[in-house]
Fold this protein.
Amino acid sequence: MLGIIDVGGGLRGIYGAGFLDYCMDREISFDYCIGVSAGSANLAAYIAGQKGRNYRFYHDYAFRKDYMGICQYRKTGSYINLDYIYGTLSNSNGESPLDYPTLAASPKRLVIVATDAETGKAVYFTKDDLRQDNYAPIKASSCVPVVNRPYPIGNNLYFDGGISDPIPIEKAFADGCDRVIVVLTRPRDEYRLPGKDHMLAQRLRKTWPMAAEQLADRAIIYNDSLDRAKAYEKEGKALIVAPKSIYNMKTLTKDQNALSLLYQDGNRDARWIWGFIRDIHTSSNRDE
């Protein structure tokens, strides 16, 4: 089973959008798709076969006041308007609806990583947790702590999946993948520094202490996961695809030129998967 991980990364997730548009253009199919934060939205549109949809969200819609900004934060306590992005825009009567019937009917598996705000532990939603015009797990997975209030689903509250499982490669293999492609939104040799996470964790600690502890350790978790992905790559079980430059883009940087460049880079870098896919087919034929 061939899997793909899209780690998201706020607006830098446009790199993964470019990668997946290349795959849709060339009908490259993944059996298992696991997404973190914006990566989960990228993969939902990929499974639905909606080439170009993700690009509009990053490059066009993100510059609207309704999408995110200080006005949203003052009004609601959340900088990113998740209900606008994955509701108003994405619902069946929205400006850019997600093709939910196609997504639901696809044999491809979708896993969405979120973080339980109470425990700080990773929670893995699946495609079965989505409904037409109810994409709450994607909202939960994309709920950046401190920047946003935790997102409610039922009786529980959730934060961004990147806190608890930023590169869910072990989850992908545990769920049955034989090979996995990992799409990063930082250069492959750029390890995460803990300074900013510690500062944000201090702000979160009073209300959500367990999530804050997880946030404080995010650099350790990310860096360890990256090392694991590199180890699997040496074994031929994984392929890491990552931008050489992020053009000074942080998680929520609004820069249309940089966004265009990152999309183009993701679209171009996707060509590196052909050798990996050929190796899989060659190995399968040899086993037969």
